[in-house]
């Protein structure tokens, strides 16, 4: 009996040691370049995971789209070819339609409010909805607030947008928003926006501060109105195949590290945004800040869109609109 007990004890110890010593290197894809805020956040995520697993789990970051564009990497994650992807929420609505509600214009009064919502049970519930598609949602990242910028005309009210041709993404929601504001939506490829503004093909475009400045759009559209019509978050997602291969302890480490990396990513985004804003002003651009009254007019103009784009998710929309920050 003693021999049997000793054998079992040794076997358990060997097995336990093997599990503890198991090492793995996982891959994370991001289509943004080295140094971009989402990549900075991903690097912090990888650092925390490696530190908390004593080096057992390493995460290699592949920035710059080297593993494919967003759509391709999301497909790869579903069958385990890639372990993590940083993605915008736009393609994720194909897997969880509730994502569309998060893109509604003028939904969040501030960046902090949006993250309070996303890091509450509301946001966690949306992430959980991805699992049926073979995807585990880990955390939310910041992509800033999108606003309008114009070539020749200062915009200080909804009326000032009337009749303007505004470049937008080829998105039903974005086109409907611009029409609701009295302007004419004009889908144009991103790489052609500078010349379209320069030659008068469009009168305006929309993006966040870094998108405006670092693509030199401030040179041809120097009036930036802080209407902040869209705050569209991004995500770190994980292959469910990889997730299911981990112990519960390692799953907890990865989830907690991802959530904690959000703070680092948001700080990097805030720094990049402030830098872009300051540099644009130094180079002659003008920032237009709206009063609360004028801001409310922009929001009121698009409210008729809410029922259509929240159909089937009315409770979700209501919970966001009535959310109280603690």
From TrEMBL:
Coiled coil (residue ranges): none
One Gene Ontology cellular component: outer membrane-bounded periplasmic space
CDD domains attached to this UniProt entry: PBP2_TRAP_SBP_like_3
GO MF term (any one): carbohydrate binding
Entries under Gene3D superfamilies matching the protein: Bacterial extracellular solute-binding protein, family 7
GO annotation terms (biological process): transmembrane transport
Protein name per UniProt: TRAP dicarboxylate transporter, DctP subunit
Domain of life where this protein originates: Bacteria
PANTHER family named among the record's database cross-references: DICARBOXYLATE-BINDING PERIPLASMIC PROTEIN, PTHR33376
Transmembrane residue ranges: none
Keywords: Signal
Signal sequence annotation: 1-21
UniProt keyword Plastid present: no
NCBIfam families in alphabetical order: dctP (TIGR00787), TRAP_S1 (NF037995)
InterPro entries in the record: DctP_fam, TRAP_DctP, TRAP_DctP_sf
